[in-house]
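This protein record is not my work; I was only asked to verify it. Where you disagree with what is written, explain briefly why. This is what I was given:
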Amino acid sequence: MINQFKEQAQKIAEDFYNEILSYRTSRPNPVLVENIKVDCYGAQSPLKNIASISIIPPNGIVIEPWDQNLISFIKKAIDASPLGLNAVVDAKQVKLFLPTLDKEKKEELKKAIGIKKEEFRIKLRKLRELFLEDLKDKFDKKEISEDEKFRLKEEVQRIIEEINETFDKHEEKKIKEIEES
């Protein structure tokens, strides 16, 4: 019971981390573009499924499709994405160069990360509420003792605190990355 709660809580923390990874800084990262949906073969496919993505230091990303006929579709998908990047077709590749962030954009990103962190904390609180309701039901049905109920409540609180610390660490790391870009 507690293991299932812990797994779900860790999944929420992992989802938060993956979500903020996609926030653009001046540093190139394949995660920025790998999930952009590209119209190809009559379906929407994530970029990572149709091309290799590599980094050109200090601020470039190179996308090499496995099928050269997809270059124009990839360029179109990147241009339409919310990243605000201009794709440049160069022979058999699509290149992206990340511009440096101005102070205003950095502040917007920091604020967006804070909002996203709060969304995930709400998900975590909802998970805790469901667990505590289930715990109360089991106690009312005499499936667990009062001591066991209090022990599980304390364990849940400890897990919540750990996950909240994880949120804070991920947020701090991403904000530092934004400030240094």
